Amino acid sequence: MDNIISAIDMVKDVGPTVWKYVKYQFCPNDYVDQFIAGQNELKRQLEDVEAQLNTQHNQPAKKARSQVDNWLEEARKETSVNVEDLICKEGYFENICSSRKFHKKIQALNGIFMEGGNYTNAGQSLVIDDHSIEYCTTVFKEKQEQLKLRQKDIKAQLETQCMQPGKIARKEVEDWIEKAGQRIAIKVQDLISRGECSSSSILEKKTEELKQTFEQGEKYTNASESLVVDDHSIEYYAPVYKEKQERLKHQKEHIEANLKTQCMQPGKIARKEVEEWLEKAGQQIAITVEDLISQGESSSSTNLRKNIEELKQRLEEGKEFTNASVSLVIDDHSIKGVPLLVEKCSGRDDIQDQILEWLKGDEVTRIAVSGMGGVGKTTIMKQVHNQLLKESKFNKVVWVKVSKDFDIIVQHKKKFDILKFQKRIASSLELKLELQDHENETKLAGLITQRLGQGSSVLILDDVWEPFSLDDVGIPDLVGNNGCKLVLTTRLRHVARAMDCKVILVNPLPANEALALFLENVGSDVFSNGKIKTDIEPFLKQILQKCDGVPLAIVTVAKSMRGKLNPSSWKLALSELVSKFEGIVDCLKFSYECLKPQCQECFLYCAMYPEDYEIPKEHLIEYWIEEGFIYKEGKTREVMNWKGHDILDILVDNCLLESIKSIDEEDCVSMHDLLREMALEIKPQFLVKAGMALEKLPEEHEWSEDLLKVSLMRNYIAEIPSSMPSPKCPMLTTFLLSNNKISTIPEAIFEHMLGLKILDLSYNRQLSRLPSSVSKLEKLTALLLNCCASLREVPSLSSLVGLKKLDISWTSIEELPQGLNMLTNLKYLGLGGRLSETLDELLQNLFKLQHLTVKTSTKFKWEKIGSWGKLQNLEKLNLYNLNNLNVVFGDVGAVAKWLGYLQKLQTIHVRYCLQLEEIIESESEEGEKVTLPKLESLRLNSLPKLKRIYSNSNTVLICDSLKNIEIESCKNIESVFWSGFNPLPNLEYLHLYNLVNLKSMFNEEGLGLSPLAPPTIFFSLKEIEVYGCNQLKKVFSSGWLLGYFQSLETIRVGWCSQMEELISSLAHEEENVTLQKLQSLELIQLPALNSIYTRSNVLICDSIQSLRIANCEKLKRIPLNFHLLDNAHLSYPPSLKQIVVFPKKWWASLEWSHPNAKDILLPLCEFRWIDWFS
To answer: Which of 451, 707, 836, 1077 is spaced 20 to 30 Å from 1151 by Cα?
Structure first.
């Protein structure tokens, strides 16, 4: 150390210039500013992560991830370090030490800050399941089982002792049995769902209660212990029993009189359920107290109470038959129809039961059973047909096979042959037709109507391909007890809709039921000692998997494999499986061939995805647009998107695709394996090896010259060898290589693919550069490089003048690609990565641009707003992670001018822009209007500094087409609507999530609202959702404000800790307010809520269907409007179908304006926890 100090002193002696340099290098003061700035940034990040963690931690049975906890500990440690602690005593060597300390700490801060970026993403889960309860759960269930057995023994012993004359259970024994039952009924999942089990402590407590109850019951297990006492309560229950009997007797006499009158109608007989009720009621009336006592059955009040309960149940059942509007009789049917031969229908009981329920009910008169070919629709309906023959509701059940036989060509157009169809129905009805009736549609329609209108009938039409007019055919609707219920089977859901049918979808069988059906048809030879033979089982299961739950496929293959015992036969069958399915493929191909050419192309393209893949609808439609399947010059991207969804609906309706939701609730479609194989057979020019875990490109011989499209997406291809020659595929137009692990692409790979139009290399995260040969793909219309995180180099794009879509978002590109400004045909542009340039010059040339997405987290700048004026075709604007962005649209005094060019802008989506304070900034003069006439959707997410959308009171913002506003995790927003907003007559959805400082939903004064103003500003608003807004105390600040919201159908408010009132009321307001269209009201986890609407007032909601309330402990009144009927009975809104409340004890504590209200509503109630996200 002395040597170092001496060296420093020597340098100091050299001269002031050299010493100044040394001092600058080692002085700690130069690091202080950097250290303090780093600490402040980390503190802000720490606050955000803690807030997000607190929100997620409130979920039941969740705890912080260990890496998050570790990060929080490190961040808190580093932000607590004082500057003074890092500065050593004055001296040259000490300065060097201090500098090193500061340098080390700054590096530590940067490292922690970079790691923290992973936890600020709103979609990132910071918590995991609390697995500490697993052991406690096991112990808890063991104790429950022990208690259950003890309770069973004691109950059996009690029952034996109660058989003694004049004996009744001791009260403490009954209490123990009841308490034990409550303990046994507790489910761990119930505790978790209520949020009471976020740790093992509650389970441990409940386990102790089980142990205590078990020990308390030990004394009752002693055989010498008496569990009964003398019964002295018969005197009380006997009169009650007699009174109930007398009431049942009068009710029975009343029903018998009505039944006798109704049975006097010709062709009527008593309903079976009425007869059964009368018989049971007569039996109960005949039993007297004396009879029970003499038989030794009523020596205790327990049995008397049981009989009283049975009498009450019979009285309740009889109420239905005393209703004057309820018929006690049905038609006395003659022969209904002939049973159909049908094989056993495995795994379809639920569908059959649903169809039968609809047919027996009054609400549904037309049913369509829809599903892909071979899935079992006809078999199901044959079973239903035969079941209906046993029922008494219908006097005729008619089966007609329709199929494609009734399609005829008239003037080059396909038409449904009504006359031929009528003759088929007439034959099924056994109508005797005169010769002149055979060719007369009108006469035939009249005869069919007459026959089907005699009483109630069911007409089943199998395999319908075209919609038709029921009136033209002569099929009468069911009116009262006369007419016809219609059931049809079809592969085409649009036929079902055109026929105004209630649709029930038949899906393929699940694995266990598919196996059962296969084994049922393959015969007993595959079994040995009751199990499938081990040498056959693996091949059988692979074959079964290939059938993918389609009953027709399963039965066909199973029957073809009967008697084959050699494993080699099964192995051969697996390889030849496709040939075994010719009949099914022909069946499926017919559905395909019925499509228009445009829909056929779109359907075949779905085979480009991996087998069983959940295909996102938006992703698929984007491909269709770029392929040109739904592209039309001059059409907006929105219109093309609509067309894409229309085609998807057609494909789903034809059972060629299935509409599903992915695990993250994204709208997707899936393609049945057999349909995918069929598509690839139809298009042998497609080379598809998607999702097959390939590690290299297909072999050279697989690249035939006639290939049109190649899909290798979602594999593990890491390298394309430079020695590999370019595949000679001059006709290739589409090459999909997304979601692989490619790091390098050789220059020559595209040499013989000059016809390429679509090249998708997205999600190859190791790819660092594109070969220059890409510049030679002059026919390219779409180049997709998004999420190639390592990509830094892209060759010149100047020759790709036909390019319509370019996506380089989420890459490491630092400069805009050369020639980008020459791509004047671009309609879709995705930018991002580490770009530090402005958009000015670029946007001036891209005047056809419809969709602009910018995703970056570094230095992207917006300098000259005037360039927006060139984007007259822009429809969608997405801005992500622009950390330096302060204002989206802003240029002093010029906003109205340049926003005026964005007349086609439909969507604005801004998220993760940490410095953004305003969306639109304007200092325009009073009276100026800012217009976005096509804007439909505004989504703002994770903008921590955003204060307002638009705030200039001098000008008016006009967004007449705006339908959707969604604002999430913008903690500085205090009010959503304020001065400057014009009426939003088309706004339908308002969703506000985690706005922790939101204090008012609607600023009446700023918006110019008053009880006298016309209610047009929110005229179309259908849905309001408010979640996690902890400063918000009310949604509507006054009752008159509801006049602006008369289209509201749904109100959902949850997890707002300070919410006190849903609707406030002023002293001078009328007593009641109305929301005529409100269908659903949901209030969850609002601990401070004491009123839905001021206590003395009523909220009139005659359309209300669902009421869901959970954990609103302070709420004591539900202001539903009840009606007093002419017979003085109370009635709730007839539309109300469901009330879900939690906990049950809260329901018991509610106050009602009418004493019978709670009892009237009880049948609608479910007592369970409500999941906000369900």
So the answer is: 1077
Residue 102: burial class (beta carbons within 10 Å; 0-12, 13-18, 19+) = buried
CA 60 centroid distance within chain? 21
Say how far residue 849 (Cα) sits from the centre of its chain: 33
Which tokens hold the place of 313? 């149940």
Which own/partner contact pairs does 744-748 have at CB distance under 8 Å and 24+ positions apart? 744/719, 744/720, 744/768, 744/769, 745/720, 745/770, 745/771, 746/720, 746/721, 746/722, 746/771, 747/722, 747/771, 747/772, 747/773, 748/722, 748/773
Cα 564 → chain centroid: 46
Among left, alpha and beta (phi > 0; psi -120 to 50; other), residue 455 is left
State whether the Cα torsion 92-95-100-101 is positive or negative.
Answer: positive
Amino acid at 75: A
CA–CA dist 84, 35 (Å, integer): 12
d(CA 35, CA 806): 41
CA distance 484 to 445: 14
Residue 12 has a pLDDT of 42
User: Is residue 219 a contact partner of residue 151, using CB atoms and an 8 Å limit?
Assistant: no
Q: What is the average pLDDT across 993-1002?
A: 85
Instruction: Enumerate residues 6+ apart whose C-beta is below 8 A from 203.
Output: 133, 136, 137, 139, 140, 188, 191, 197
Q: In which residue are the tokens 């999942």 written?
A: 189
Res. 22: pLDDT tops 70: no
Q: What is the separation, in whole angstroms, between the first and last Cα of the chain?
A: 69
List of residues 6+ apart from 717 with CB closer than 8 A: 694, 695, 696, 697, 737, 740, 741, 742
Query: For the segment 427-441, what is each residue's pLDDT rounded down to a tens digit?
Result: 777 676 665 566 778
Q: What are phi and psi of 928, to 5 degrees?
A: -80, 145
pLDDT, tens digit (0-9, with 9 covering 90-100), for 584-629: 665 467 567 768 899 999 999 999 999 878 899 999 999 999 999 9
> CB of 724 within 8 A of CB of 715?
no
CB atoms within 10 A of CB 701: 6
How big is the CA angle at 366 (ends 364 and 367), to the nearest 5 degrees? Answer: 95
Task: Report which DSSP code applies to 1142.
Answer: E
Q: What angle (nearest 5°) sits at the alpha carbon of residue 905, between those of residues 919 and 998?
A: 30
Q: Residue 403 has which token pair? A: 């199929």
Which residues make beta-bridge pairs with 687? 710
Residue 722 DSSP symbol: T
Coil vs helix vs strand at 773: helix
Cα 702 to Cα 841: distance, rounded to the nearest angstrom = 45
DSSP string, 605-668: HGGGSPTT--EEHHHHHHHHHHHTSS--TT--HHHHHHHHHHHHHHHHHTTSSEEEE-TT--EE
CA atoms within 13 A of residue 680's CA, in its CB half-sphere = 19
Q: What's the pLDDT tens digit per position in 34-48?
A: 788 788 888 888 888
69-78, 777-786, 970-979: the lowest-pLDDT one: 970-979
Is residue 1168 within 8 Å of residue 1139, measured between CB atoms? no
92-116 helix and 66-79 helix, angle to the nearest 10 degrees: 150
CA angle in degrees (0–180, nearest 5) for 1009-1011-1017: 40
Amino acid at 362: D
The SS3 of residue 675 is: helix
Distances, alpha carbon 583 to alpha carbons 139, 588, 656, 774, 1124, in Å: 56, 9, 17, 46, 64
Query: What would the 3-class secondary structure string for 490-540 be?
Result: ECCHHHHHHCCCEEEECCCCCHHHHHHHHHHHHCHHHEECCEECCCCHHHH
Q: DSSP assignment, residue 935?
A: -
The overall average pLDDT reported for the chain is 78
Chain CA centroid to CA 1020, Å: 24
